[in-house]
Amino acid sequence: MARHVFLTGSPGVGKTTLIQKASEVLKSSGIPVDGFYTEEVRQGGRRIGFDVVTLSGLRGPLSRVGSEPLPGRRECRVGQYVVDVTSFEQLALPVLRNVTKENRNHLLTEIVTCVQSGRK
Fold first, then answer.
1. Which residues does residue 47 pair with via DSSP β-bridges, in sequence order?
2. What is the pTM of this model?
3. 29 by DSSP, 3-state: which?
4. Which regions in the chain score pLDDT beneath 50?
5. What is the pLDDT of residue 117?
């Protein structure tokens, strides 16, 4: 049975480090893992955006502060960040599409539970 983990928390508490270390341990034990996480991008000590990183090692820009979208790309903003929708679709969506029909309902239940527990 597939297991899904959604990790949330305040900045700097170690979410990315936990995912990286846990996936390394699972892979080295022969347990297949798939997924992605976002990683902060800094320049001169200042956050300038985020990258999306798959557990298979692919990386691409997710968002950048005030950057303009490339010609022909859709613009989507979240606060001060311009989201690279194409990069997200190329890297993260294939991972999400690997959710089988059998476990999709279970996954949605986990997402709802995660969101609801975060509101308490």
1. 42
2. 0.70
3. coil
4. 104-120
5. 45
Q: In whole angstroms, how far apart are CA 81 and each of 22, 66, 69, 77? A: 29, 6, 11, 6
Q: Please answer whether residues 39 and 50 qualify as being in contact, where contact means their C-beta atoms are separated by less than 8 angstroms.
A: yes
Radius of gyration of the chain (CA): 16
Of how many residues is the chain composed? Answer: 120
pLDDT for 92 equals: 87
CA dist., res. 54 & res. 91, Å (int): 7
Residue 52: count of CB within 10 angstroms of its CB: 21
Question: Residues 60, 51: contact at Cβ < 8 Å?
Answer: yes
Strands 59-65 and 46-54: antiparallel
Q: Given this model, what pLDDT does residue 72 score?
A: 67
